[in-house]
Amino acid sequence: MRIKKMNKYPLIILFMFSFFSNNALADKIYLKSGQIREGMFKARRASIPGDNWCTGEDEFEFVWSSSNSECLSKSDIIKVEKELKELKGIALLAKDSLWGEELNGYRTQLIPASSEYTVGYPMFFHLVMKNVGTDSKWYDSQGVGHNDLLIKDAKGKEVSYKGMTFQTAGSGCPIDPEETVTLFENRNIASVYSIIEPGKYTIQFRKGYYGMSEDSIFPESNIFEFEVKSGIPSEEDILISTLSDILPDNGWLLFPFQKTPPVVNLANYVSILVERQAKLKDDVVAMVLWQTNERSDMLAQQKVGDAEVIEYLGHSLLGKYYYVYIPLKAEEYWPSVRKDIAKALSLQK
Q1: To 10 degrees, what angle do helices 337-344 and 235-246 make?
Q2: 245: phi then psi, degrees, rounded to nearest 5
Q3: E strand or H helix at 81, and its extent?
Q4: Is 238 exposed, middle or buried (0-12, 13-18, 19+ CB in 10 A)?
Q5: DSSP state of 64
Q6: How many domains is the chain partitioned into structurally?
Q7: What is the DSSP string of 231-267?
């Protein structure tokens, strides 16, 4: 890397990282890795004059250069060093990422897009897919993004999904033999999965049908292990985790932030759908918990459906108010539901 200072005296700084071996040059840094593919890090750009990050098919290449007419300040030099250090960490993580098993002529791969992860901060990943077959395909990936990742903590417990359901519309795209495509890039998994505890986690793309074409059955990816540092989780994530811990084991699932409509209009609220799934339709029941920022007039007299009612459950020490809609049938499968929720959230009337 060649940097020209204001006093016109050239200063040459060589970034020597041990993992780059003899591939470190003055203006280029290479990482040999057959696991990294072209375009995977195209979103990584340094906001300094003359930057030029690029990747190669068989090697991951970090390039930064400055023309003779440009002058960089000390802060610019420090910024370059910081960028390269972060990219070094990403490259080391990506080097350890392997492809998942082949299915339907595809392989998928999850690649980290950050060198470290912290509770309460965005956690970015890339997902790519390669056609390892001999024929061209017409894939459709519009379904990717809805609870398509399996994330587990160090104890093997699955991390709760907090994203909302959505409908998709679109068309397929061609993918030729040996071609690699990006299914998602720089996706913040912390925005749709509740990761609130520090520690080691594993993440994997789920096998599934993600589009409208017969070529849209995608295989599961590699299992990637990453560590999350301690931080401050959001209030919503704490609520999800607390409720997840008290769910009975007989088929109950949590669907956070479905924005089910309350009886009255509330300016600020979140709602969580709690549903018991079963093979028989008559055995499927659902109830709703609302968390509001102020006491509302959602009173017990207000009817919902077939004479069921919304109840005020209590308020927390943090100034949140909670209301529930619990069908009579739900109480058959979870008799202590009101008591369990109130105790878990430390509610007072």
Answers
A1: 140
A2: -70, -20
A3: helix 74-95
A4: middle
A5: B
A6: 3
A7: ----HHHHHHHHHHHH--TTTEEEEET--PPPSS--S
**3-state class of 298 per DSSP?**
coil
Clarify whether residues 209 and 118 are in a common domain: yes
State which of 181, 202, 229 marks the end of a domain: 229
pLDDT at 203 over 50: yes
How confident is the model over 11-37, as pLDDT tens digits? 333 333 333 332 322 233 333 333 333
Q: What is the tens place of the pLDDT at every residue in 103-161?
A: 989 999 998 888 889 999 999 999 989 999 999 988 877 778 778 999 999 999 999 88
Instruction: Answer yes or no: do 89 and 120 share one domain.
Output: no
CA-based nearest residue to 322, from 248, 244, 255, 266: 266
Domain boundary among the residues 93, 122, 157 is at 93
Residue 299 lies in domain: 235-344
The C-alpha angle with vertex 174 and arms to 169 and 178, in degrees rounded to 5, equals 135
- Joined together, the tokens standing for residue 204 give 């994997």
d(CA 252, CA 285): 9
DSSP per-residue string spanning 82-124: HHHHHHHHHHHHHHT------BTTEEEEEEESSS-EETTS--E
Distance CA 129, CA 118 (A): 27
Same domain, 225 and 241: no
Contact 110, 125 (CB under 8 A): yes
Task: For residues 59 and 56, give the distance between their C-alpha atoms in angstroms, rounded to a whole number.
Answer: 5
Residues 189 and 124 in one domain: yes
Residue 9 pLDDT: 35
Look up tokens 């009173």; give the residue.
299
Please check whether residue 334 lies inside any domain of the structure: yes
User: Over 70: is that where the pLDDT of 71 sits?
Assistant: no
Paired tokens of 331: 């109480």
50: alpha, beta or left, given left = phi > 0 and alpha = psi -120 to 50? left
CA distance 31 to 55: 10
